[in-house]
Amino acid sequence: MKAIVQREYGDTDVLELAEVDKPEIRDDEVLVRVRAASVHAGDVLLMKGTPYIMRAGLGLSRPRNPTPGFDVAGTVEAVGSKVSRFTAGDEVFGNGKGTLAEYAAAKESQLVAKPPGLTYEEAAVLAVSGLTALKAVRDVGKVQPGQAVLINGAAGGIGVYAVQIAKAMGAEVTAVCSAGKADLVRSLGADHVIDYAEEDFTQGDNQYDFILDNVGNRSLSDCRRALSPNGTLIPNSGTAGGTWIGPLVSMGQAWVTSPFVSQNLRTFLSTPNEKDLNALVDLVESGTVVPVIGSNYSLDEAAEALRTVAGGHAEGKVAITVSGD
Fold first, then answer.
1. Which residue of 4, 124, 269, 313 has the fewest CB atoms within a 10 Å radius of its CB?
2. Pairing of β 2-6 and β 15-19
3. Which domain holds residue 233?
4. What global pTM score does this model have?
């Protein structure tokens, strides 16, 4: 099969399209014929191997899994002996391993049926970013009707979902993005838009009950200034911090500071699972959440797709069409 392969850490020039064997699946896994995938900021970090502390689990000198990619949408090719929810031919989406390839393995627990009204590309851009936004807004922020919510990086991969989910929960949503993306976030439900080039949201008079900071371009103390006395702040930028420990700096600051202040400073991990994926499907099928694809590439253009994400100004999600037949 064809797959994107990287044999060392680095920029997009380490990626190549190569012929490799199909992955073998375990008893609890599904072999997916990949129709579409997606890339996000986390894929860029894994490609580069930064922050370096990640390499302890990924491979010290080179990636242990040479094919990148997690988001996946496609059809079931085969199932493991313990898989009960899927059979060959089923249309699925969710989280897999090495999804920038014609075939990928995925745990049964991290896949659900693809909504029939979505294209494979639309389904592929949902899982990682959509679930992150859902967990942040619903579970960690516990956003309530009437609350003031601010999303920094509102037009990015996670931001476009966070805006929609917060609005659906009855919040008054302020989106921080560039002026050129203001119309997009308004169309997703944002009540107010701040152009980050013209205004620093941490220096204004407004305070927010919940802030999701997907950018990390303001210090924790600055963000706290814009947070209500009992509000919740999530520093959620994977690219903030240095090359050694990266976002662990802001995460550590939040963890250490939170017990001593009235504000709730939180970090979290989002693990794909059937229950939350189905909750996301319900939001999509009700029309509450729509996938936002800013650009679409073919598999052999995966390096360009990751370059788009690495530039930090991608609009919405970046999809990759793998197979259309």
1. 269
2. antiparallel
3. 129-265
4. 0.90
42 and 63 assigned to the same domain: yes
Those residues with Cβ within 8 angstroms of residue 282's Cβ, 6 or more apart along the chain or in another chain: none
DSSP codes of every residue in 155-168 = TSTTHHHHHHHHHH
Task: List the CATH number of the domain containing 309.
Answer: 3.90.180.10
- The answer to whether the beta carbons of residues 76 and 32 sit under 8 Å apart is yes
User: Reduced to 3 states, what is the DSSP secondary structure of residue 5?
Assistant: strand
Are the C-beta atoms of 236 and 213 separated by less than 8 Å?
yes
First to last CA, the chain: 15
Residues 112 and 180 occupy one common structural domain: no
CB count within 10 Å of CB 36 equals 26
- Residue 148 belongs to domain with CATH number: 3.40.50.720
Residue 59 scores a pLDDT above 80:
no
Of 41, 285, 293, the residue nearest 160 (C-alpha):
293
Question: Three-class SS of residue 252?
Answer: helix
Q: Is residue 273 part of a domain?
A: no
Same domain, 136 and 106: no
In this predicted model, what pLDDT tens digit does every residue of 93-149 receive, in sequence order? 999 999 999 999 999 999 999 999 999 999 999 999 999 999 999 999 999 999 999
- Summarised one tens digit per residue, pLDDT across range 230-269 is 999 998 765 554 553 444 555 555 555 666 466 888 887 7
Neighbours of 173 (CB within 10 A): 30
Residue 138 within a domain: yes
